[in-house]
Each structure stands twice: as C-alpha cells, then as structure tokens.
Amino acid sequence: MSKEIADSASLQSSVVINEAVQTLRDGGLVAFPTETVYGLGADAKNPEAIKKIFSIKGRPSHHPLIVHIAAPDKFDQNQIDWVPILAPWVRDLSEDALKLIHAFWPGPLTLVFKKDKSVLSELTGGQDTVAIRAPAHPIAQELLRKFKGGVVAPSANRFGKVSPTSAADVRSEFEGELELMVLDGGDCEVGIESTIIDLSSGDHPVLLRPGLITPKVIFAKTGIKVYQPNESKDNTSNGNLADALPRVSGSLKAHYAPTTPLRLYAPGRVLDALSEFPDIKSRVAVAVWDSESSLGEDGHPSVHFEEVEVPSDSTAFASHLYRALRDLDQQEWDLILFPEPPIGEEWDGVRDRLQRACFGSGPSSSSQDSN
Ligand code: TXA
Ligand code: MG
C-alpha cells in the first residue's frame, strides 16, 4: 500500500471514529471490532442506550453486559495506574486483580468485580457485580480513548447465535437495521470471546468462561490459581458454588448456534455421528484436521461428504471457528460435522463453544433454551 493511500485510510478511519464517538454520546449504538469478536457498543452511563442493545439483540434484560474501557496509551504497560481508571466502576481492587490486569490488559480477559454503586443496574442485570475488560484492538482502543467513558458491548449477534468476527458478519446479523453504524477493523484475531474470571467473591478467582487466556497461562504469568466453577479451594465438595455464581448468558447450554444441525465426531467415527438422524442426510460437510490427509476409509453409499480442513493448532482453530460455522451455515448443508477437540486446557474455549453450538443448532433449534 502506498503511503498516500495508507494515510488517507487512517485519516478516514479517524473521521469515522469521531462520528462513532458522537453516535455513542447521542445515545446510539456502534458495532466495533475487538481482538476477540465484534461488539455492539453503547454508553455504559446511558440507561436508554443500554435498553436499545437488549432490544436489538433480543437478549433478556437480566443478562449482564461487559463494560469496555480504554487502556492509556503508554509504551510500558506496567506504568499504567489502573486504580483511578477502575475507581468509577469497581468497589475494591485486590492485589490479585491488579496482577491480572497488569499481565493481560489490554487483551482478551474480562474480570468480574463487586460493582461501584454508581454502575447502572440496567447493565449488570440487577446484580451487585460488574464485568470489565480493556480490549486490545487498535480501533476499539481509539474509540474508547476518544469517548472517554465505559462502553457496554455484548457480541454483535442476535441472542444465541454465532458471534461475528468481521464487519460483514455484523451487517448480516442486523440486516434490517440500516442505521446501525459498524466500524470495520478486519477479521478478529482471537476469534472466540474473552476469558471471564470472577473475582467478586473476594475469596478465590473462578473461571466463568474459557477463552484464549487459560488458567495455566494465568498461573505461569502471575502465580495466581484460577478455580473451575465446580472446584473448591479446600477440595471439599462445594456443590453450591455453581448455583451461587453470577448469571452468564454464554453459560446456557445452547449458544453460538448455526441453523444447520451441527454434531461432533470422535476420531474415525464420522458414520456414528449420522446414526442419530433417522432420515439420511445426503449432503454433509465434515471438518477434518489439516494434519490428517482425509477421512480415509469412512464412507457411506447415499451420503455425499465434503471435507473442509480446520487447523489442528488450538489458537488457529479458535481464530477460524466462527468464520467456518457462519460460512458452512450459508452453504445449506444437511448436516455439519466437526471433530471433537482434543483433551487439554488450550482446547477448553473452542470445546465449550462447539458443544453449545451443537446443542442449539438446527432449523427450529432449541430456541427456547438458546434465549
Ligand atoms: O470477547 C468478549 O468478551 C466480547 C467482546 C465484544 O468484548 N463480548 C462478549 O459479550 O462476549 P457477551 O455479552 O456476548 O458476553 C458477555 C458475557 C455474558 O455471558 C454475560 O453473562 C457475562 O459476560 N457477564 C457480564 N457481566 C457479568 C457479571 N457481572 N457477572 C458474571 N458474568 C457477567
Ligand atoms: Mg455473546
């Protein structure tokens, strides 16, 4: 790209970002790129703007939203003083919280805190906690810095559907909403939503949603142990913990779902995955690991299998997952099959999304569950 074109592109995006800032200030919605997925943003201090998000997404009002904040533009991230930045949102900020923030912000990690009393209950779903993250995408950063406030942003999809990872995906989700402003930042790199960790109990950090940043990575970088929802600190059974956890819409069994039926297959067991369907599916798209040449011996006389390669590296897989689900969903297959992700924490994020996508998939889907 010539320098002139690059300059005019950045100039234009600055103008567009200023317009987006004004839209947010006027109580409007702006879809914007983050490194995980595209978000649908509104001013976190404007109850009417927040209500618009719930209505356009079709999301029940008791499901809380993440507040996105800017990370100051410092060469050395360790120099950032997060205490005054978080003071308007968070009641207390523990040592552990600051360690996690310094290690992973800006980036794909959302932290749940006890909320400051000024945080609107419209965005917390009436709970006394608030989820916050500082996204790393440069356009998200510029938008947030210029806006100078918190922006609530769920993934920019209709409730229960696959999260968008490109500006075109957002536009196709909200086709009828011609007025919706969409900032285009290209394809999202991470590809699945941020890891969410609950710090609100003041006791020990609990993983609410797996993502690119895993408990192992967190432990290696900070020495902080993150607990699974069903795991207790003293190793005694703690069956009530899961019940006491805050509500997370992504925790519903059906979520991130395509309209085409989707199932997982165990290694070498593609035909088993068909047995669940009484009517033979004649056109089946089968995702196969790029490390394996093809399905080999699996075959069926009346089924046409079309192989689609998927990366066998977990980070690359995550980055392509929603793109692949959306594209396959458009191609009108009778059934989509994905290989079961291997065991291992680095696969937990994609396993979680794939399992929910399977559960909610299909034309009539389990839409009651996915709401
Ligand atoms: O990567 C992401 O996190 C993306 C981008 C746009 O930042 N956002 C995203 O937002 O995934 P959403 O609304 O689709 O999912 C946010 C999740 C929901 O499952 C919500 O229930 C949970 O965060 N959440 C929000 N506030 C919470 C709170 N106070 N306690 C527990 N969970 C909370
Ligand atoms: Mg979402």
Q: Can you give a write-up of this model?
A:
With 371 residues, the chain is of the alpha/beta class. It folds into two domains: 3-244, Alpha-Beta Complex (DHBP synthase), CATH 3.90.870.10; 262-366, Rossmann fold (3-Layer(aba) Sandwich), CATH 3.40.50. The protein has helices at residues 3-25, 47-57, 82-86, 95-104, 121-124, 138-147, 167-173, 215-222, 240-244, 270-274, 314-330, 348-360, 367-370; strands at residues 30-32, 39-43, 66-68, 109-114, 129-133, 151-152, 181-182, 195-198, 206-209, 262-265, 283-289, 304-310, 335-339. It has a nine-stranded mixed sheet with strand order 7-1-2-6-3-5-4-8-9, sandwiched between helices. Strands 10-13-11-12 form a four-stranded parallel sheet. A hairpin with a 7-residue loop joins strand 8 (195-198) and strand 9. Helix 1 crosses helix 6. The N and C termini lie far apart (44 Å). Mean pLDDT is 88; it is low at 1-9, 236-246 and 365-371. Threonylcarbamoyladenylate binds at residues 34, 36-37, 39, 63-66, 110, 112, 124, 127, 129-131, 135, 153-155, 193-194, 196, 208, 246-250.
Structure in a nutshell:
The chain has two domains: 242 residues, DHBP synthase (Alpha-Beta Complex), CATH 3.90.870.10; 105 residues, Rossmann fold, CATH 3.40.50. The protein is 33% helix and 15% strand.
Looking at the overall shape, the CATH architecture of the largest domain is Alpha-Beta Complex
- What is the structural class? alpha/beta
Number of domain modules: 2
Kindly provide the name of the CATH class of the largest domain: Alpha Beta
Say which molecules are bound, naming each kind only once. threonylcarbamoyladenylate, magnesium ion
What gross morphology would you assign?
globular
CATH fold-level assignment of the largest domain: DHBP synthase
N-to-C SSE string, H for helix and E for strand: HEEHEHHEHEHEHEEEHHEHEEHEHH
What is the helix tally? 13
Give Rg in angstroms. Answer: 21 Å
- The spatial strand order of the largest sheet comes to 7-1-2-6-3-5-4-8-9
